[in-house]
Amino acid sequence: MKTNHMILAGLLLVCAVSRSSAEDVQILSLSPVAEHSCIAAPIALAEGQSLSGLSWLNNDSSQPFPKLLLMEGLPGVAPDISQTGLILQEVTGEVLEWGEVSLDVPVTSTTDFIYAVWVFPSEAETTGQGLGQGPGIGIEMQADGVPFYLSADGEQWMEYSRDYRLCVQPVVTPAAARLAVFPVSLSALAEGVEYAPESASPGEIPVLPSRTVLHGSRPNPFNPRTTVSYDLAGSARVSLKVFDARGRLVRRLVSEKQVAGVYNVIWRGKDDRGASVSSGVYFMRFEASGYVQSERITLVR
Predict the structure, then answer these.
(1) Residues 151 and 32 in one domain
(2) Are residues 210 and 135 in the same domain?
(3) Which site among 106, 179, 200, 291 is 20 to 30 Å from 62 CA-CA?
(4) Are 10 and 133 within 8 A, CB to CB?
(5) Is residue 241 part of a domain?
(6) CB under 8 Å, gap of 24 or more: what pairs does 130-135 form?
(7) Residues of the domain holding 43
(8) CATH number of the domain encompassing residue 286
(9) Do residues 151 and 38 share a domain?
(10) Does pTM surpass 0.85?
(11) How far apart are CA 67 and CA 81, in angstroms?
(12) Is 26 found in the same domain as 168?
C-alpha cells in the first residue's frame, strides 16, 4: 500500500547570487525528506539538440545529492522515474554557488523534453542557507513558466507554483554542432539498450556520416555479446530488431527518432523479456528513412 507523504517546500532567502538576473534568489528544500524525495527540473530541447551538461544553484557543499536522474518527459506532465535513462551519482556544488556536471556522452530525447531529477539525501534536514545547513536548489521569480515538480517518494508528484522557476541551466549542443562523441538517446537507455559510443582520437572531432548504412555486427559469430554498428546521414526514425530463423521477433533494440551520427548498439543475446536466447542463427534488421538492410548473425554458446 502506498503512503502519501506531506511535502513542505521550505524557502530560504539568498542574496547576491552570481549568474542570476533576479534581485532575490531563494533556496528550495523539502521537509520531511524520505528515501526517494526529489525535485524535478524541466529542460526543453529544440529538434536535433542534445544535452551535454547541467548547472544548478547549490545550497550546501557538505550535503551531496546521492543521485541525479535524467529521463524523457512532456511539458506539464509529471516525470516518471521508472523511465530513467541515465543516473549520475553523488553530485554537488560549492556553497551558494553553481554546481556543475558534464555528461561523458551527450543525450537526446525523442520528445525534445527532459526532466533532471535531484534525489535528496534520506532524512536530511535543511535549516538555513550555506555550509552545514542542508541540501537545496535555487529558485527565482518568473511569470507563467514551465512547471517543475516535487515528490516525497518519487511516485506522487506536486506541481510547484508557475510563478517560480528552478535555477537550473542546461548545457545544450545545437543540432549542427560537431561533437567529440556522438549523442545517445535517453529513451533507448531507459529500455535497456546499451551503446558503445563512437568517439574520435584525442584532439579530433568525428565527421558526420555522408550516407546511411548498416555496417554489421562484430564479432560474428559471437558469445555472449555483439556490437551492431550503423551510420545515419541525417535525423531519421530508426528501427533495429532481431528476429530468429523462423521470422519471429526476438528483441527490439532501437525504435525511435535519432539524430545524424555513428551508432554502436550492443546486443547481449537476450529477448525483450530479458531472457537469454539459445544458440543459433538470427537476423538483424535495420530500417531508417527508406533504407532497409538485414544481416545474418550467429550466436554460439
Answers:
(1) yes
(2) no
(3) 106
(4) no
(5) yes
(6) 130/59, 130/60, 130/95, 130/96, 131/60, 131/61, 131/62, 131/95, 132/60, 132/62, 133/12, 133/59, 133/60, 134/29, 134/59, 134/60, 134/63, 135/29, 135/59, 135/60, 135/63, 135/64, 135/65
(7) 8-173
(8) 2.60.40.4070
(9) yes
(10) no
(11) 12
(12) yes
- Same domain membership, residue 82 and residue 224: no
Report the number of distinct structural domains present in the chain.
2
Distance separating alpha carbons of residues 282 and 247, to the nearest angstrom: 9
Asked if 13 and 121 sit in the same domain, the reply is: yes
pLDDT per residue as tens, the chain (301 positions) = 233 334 455 544 433 333 443 446 788 888 778 888 999 999 999 887 889 999 999 999 998 999 999 999 999 899 999 889 899 999 999 988 999 999 888 888 888 999 999 999 988 888 888 888 889 999 888 876 788 999 988 888 999 888 888 999 999 987 655 555 667 788 878 777 777 655 555 555 566 788 999 999 999 999 999 999 999 888 888 999 999 999 999 999 998 888 788 888 999 999 988 899 999 999 999 999 899 999 999 999 8
Cell of 238: 530508426
